């Protein structure tokens, strides 16, 4: 049988990398194929443009049917154009050459479906096994059919592409040769082959099948790293492919050591799920990442796979609308704020905040201002665009600042003396009868020409009655209003005057209207049952005495002091900077308080605005603006996602699990992580919260075992720390070796900075890509100074920020300082030591007790 896509030419004998001649010829062959693909794409673009034109003409007819048809057509054509016009680097990246299949069946993409070769595919003779290639498939980022519906390119997510990833020399199936094609724009630059049946003499159209290069994986792993992650679509390995294509039912859990591709796999899985069932995942896929730095690092991967719109990549500190974490708490404070014990404290606080003096709970909403206060500003929502860049309120480089014990307190942060509420006067609209420093203690209205009054006891009784249930506090306000009116009515003596129930009902209606439209009543209600905002309650918790009351028998006095102090940062109005752990508390409070009424969304002027297709008829600025509006709207409406992917799941605190759980109540899940890299101090508590978030859904577990990032020399050093951090935990197997062992440099005699700088410079010389200098969190600012003027290939990172990132080379400064930072310090050090793809230098400080070669006592 003739191979489908290969261009014929005269081949030489079978050989691995037959020199530049063979390589160049193979590149020319792939170039010819790529030219055909682009020719076909040009035809498709032409077709799509014609469709758009035609649609515009239909629109002029103006009947409802014609308009609907026009909309649908414009939509389809627009989506198509969008995809075709996208400039994909290495649009076409793979090829497999296959033996004939067991049956002649073809799938919808035109490729044969059989996984196993036909019984007579391999002929055994005196000179060994021989076979003829029956089918050649090219794999790319999107599928392209030729005019006769034969596959020119198969989408990487299609079933026919699976053998490209799954076949191994042990289980090759029909694949004889797997080729990775490297191209830029429309030019093929290189090819790398893997021979999966090396024992076989295979021919393609009668000529021996040549094999070029040392394999794509090694070529990919050896490349210099930039500041953003690349997709791995051309070299996904079999165990990774199993995860990417696992059915989306319930929960898929993936564990694996550093560098096993968990993040890469999670992102490719998002693209795969969308391809598999776009309608189902139109509900959105949420990817939760630990830091804004990792979001910025990974967010280019999905667009490079042709997927963007339906995936929101968010840092865990940016999950709450209108809130953006800009600081880290100290480990001690984080430990309390992240603990599930906070649920009890927040429940008390949400109710107790009603009793606060006006102004003490920050900007409570009055009924009349509720609508406008509910809508966050567009700046506050800056992160709303799915998979968009780091939110604007986080510094450009995605770094978070530090709380006191990690470094100096942020400028202007109030200490104990600056507690919210201190010296605050009664807020606007407060009843003049307000008790000193508390909510109003008397309600006095005029009804039916007489004064009616409720005293403090009665008001307290009504409040307790309303709070009796578990409903969210803000949603109880209408009930509180009704019970106040009931009590006023009873107190007015009117019920005694009406014996006829109908008259009584009529009089009551008039009474309610009179009273509730009185300014004094409205002002009283605003003061006595204000609509609380999560920020206002959190700010109120900065008062140590108050927090002590709300957390009695839950937190220790020391914990109360630490948490109250850290919340002082929020300021009296609650608008100060939030820490990563505050955001989960805000989310919990959101639930406990209940969302206040939202203003009605403005109606779209033109329904066509919603059609992706029309974007092609507008300017880039229009499109970007429209995308943002749509993304904002989608984000506001989206409380629940269709699929939730959690990256670095080992780091989530119980409170964060609760926050994420609320966003995936009806979702399927993919959860990836590595317990050995956890920076959370109480893994058991986190595991319970994780179980709660994931519920009783069945789980399917996968383990990734190969480390693609670190060379064996670096992995070996890191394993020594793993043995201390988590004795008995197996380390992933490093897939390559560089022959360069880690370097040790003593910096103990007070010149840590100078040594770190010198080592960073040395590494900048030795590698083409990036260098990361990882220090303990409280040295971050210092480390940035050390590296001044070295250019943007080198970055300074705090230990917690290094999570998930990678560099060509790293300098790890004072392992002991990193290990001593927190109870999970050894695991954090393990993370720091596993960031380099080529070289690692360890600079020892005094605490490391280095030997005379600068080797810290750890190693
Ligand atoms: N099949 C592959 N082909 C090429 N590169 C790969 C492959 N799998 C992983 N990599 C590369 O290995 C590196 C590590 O991948 P990734 O960051 O996804 O690992 P991880 O398991 O999330 O690591 P960590 O737990 O340390 O954050 C990345 O540079 C990634 O591109």
Sheet with the most strands, sense and barrel status: 6 strands, mixed
**Residue fraction in strands:** 15-25%
The helix tally amounts to 28
Average pLDDT number: 79
Principal-axes geometry comes out as globular
Q: Would you identify the regions where 5 or more consecutive residues have pLDDT less than 50?
A: 1-18, 361-396, 403-436, 597-637
Q: What order do the strands of the largest sheet run in, or round the barrel if closed? A: 5-6-4-1-7-8
Which structural category fits the helices and strands? alpha/beta
Question: Would you write up a description of this structure?
Answer:
The protein is of the alpha/beta class and about 850 residues long. The strands form seven sheets. The chain has a six-stranded mixed sheet, covered by helices on one side. Strands 13-12-19-20-11-21 form a six-stranded parallel sheet, covered by helices on one side. Strand 16 (about 445) and strand 17 (about 450-455) form a beta hairpin. Helix 24 packs antiparallel against helix 28. The chain starts with 18 loop residues before the first helix and ends in a 15-residue tail after the last strand. Residues about 1-20, about 360-395, about 405-435 and about 595-635 have low confidence and may be disordered. Bound molecules: adenosine-5'-triphosphate (ATP). Adenosine-5'-triphosphate binds next to helix 4 and helix 6.
